[in-house]
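pinging the channel bc i need a second pair of eyes. not urgent but kinda urgent?? the chain im working w is below, pasted from the shared doc
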Amino acid sequence: MRFGLREKMMLFLAGGVLLIGGATLVMVYSVQERIQLELIRYSVERYVLLHREKTLGGIQGDLILARKMADSDVLRRWVLDPANAEAAGPAVRELSSLIDFFSTHVAFVASRPAGHYYFVDAKTMGAVGKAGSTLQPVKQLNTTDREHEWFYQTLARPEPYHFNVAHDEQLNMTKLWINVVMKANNEAIGVVGTGIDITQFIESFVKGSEQGVTGLFVNEFGAIQGHADPSLIALNAPIQSERASSTIWKLLANDQERSELKSAMERVRLGGGSDWVGLTLQGTPRVAGVAYLAPLKWYTIAVFDRSSVLGTGYFLVVLIAMVAAMLASVLAVFEVANRLVVIPLRLLADGTRRVTEGDFSVRLPDHHADEIGEVMNAFNRMACQIAESRRLLQTNVATITAALQRAGSHEQLARIFFSNVAPLLDLGLGGFHRLDSARGVLVACGGYARAMGPDEVTETPLGSGLVGQCAIEQRSIVVDDLPADYPAIGSMLGSAPPEVLLLVPIMHAGTLLGVIELASFRRFREEELTLLDGLLTVVAMCMEIIERNERGKSQSLESSR
């Protein structure tokens, strides 16, 4: 009778159980505390890192918009003189469009020269629009009111922005506020920003569904900024940190634990990543994971009950099963199976899991001169390619986004777009058309490598040609196998017709803003389409801002005549 590898392994395991099963059980049981602690450490560090990324992802978009709001010339003129009716009208329109981009659709403006605080949401803008009036301040700021300390201390601080949790009695709101300083001639003239509902953080982290886990946010002074118990939250913490009544230090059992937690917080602040420390809360030993949220200068802390990760009873069952099924055979098969097969496969599985979780820095040892070694080499090449592609995509999106935001006109926006995108997409021809909604036509405002003749069409009615059809259907159109007489991609050395044409609509909130057409000698790759899709949102936002600025300038000129 011929035995295969599986049958031989089963025989080895059965013999091992009879010989060393009992001894191995005693040995493994003696080290269960260490194993359990390592499992808890791994769990808490992964937990806080995951929620750190989720939290940062939820605020980055609002922070970018708030800083864009602080750089708006329209709002700056109004903040300097809120009583100026000529400045108020464009400012109201600017605010009305910007609040649609914020996650909570609210914003605020605080003027230092006038001492006014304005709160803006969809209801406020609707009321202003119906009444045909200007915004009215919801409160008057003054230096003697402690509730207004945040404003004056924000103006005095060197940082361009910061965050705090505050409860506004007059507005009856508790929010995470993004405060960005607005300047004119390098002088602070006001504070603008938005508020993110603090319940988003509480529901996603502080009030997580994991049993036995207590999550909280603390600032750099230890003041509690998020907790399942609202009474423990230190409101207005950036202003009141030195006198905050609710801090993480007061929840700890002794000075040693406070010192250990402070050390862990300092390590993650300087080195990034996550750390863990043993704590005692309510008389029960716990393990706490710590990660740093650099933009907020906060720490996310997850306190784990050890039994929530792996209870002792369950751990014993697992140990017994391992002894019965695996550990009894280790001495017999370790050198052959473990070294040559099991360990490499586990490394490969762990590397695959880490890549799927977004860690593209993982590399596997490539010293195996066999089939497993070839698989590991292929895995390493794949991880390198994915990491490089992701890095290039993120870098290109960030670089082009920064360049597009400097555009002051549609022509300049088209020029910046094509000068940055063309090399990345191997572009041969390109056209940029904006929608003139008043006349129902698409107006060409820029292109790439186009030979502009005297008969060149600069306006396209909706539904006319592929550009007009793309605008009507409001979806991308791809045309392969273009005819030989299609406008050629040319240079001094020669010319040839493109192989593929891509037309994409520029949309914002379901509204058409324009159409971009791209032609190339080859089909566009998936990563190129992903890059293009990410940039279209930025292009749409820039077009909205340019159109509002042009309308504002036109109205200002008409009113000055």
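so The first strand starts at residue 106 and ends at 111. and Residues 551 and 557 are 10 Å apart (CA to CA). — does that match what u expected or am i reading it wrong
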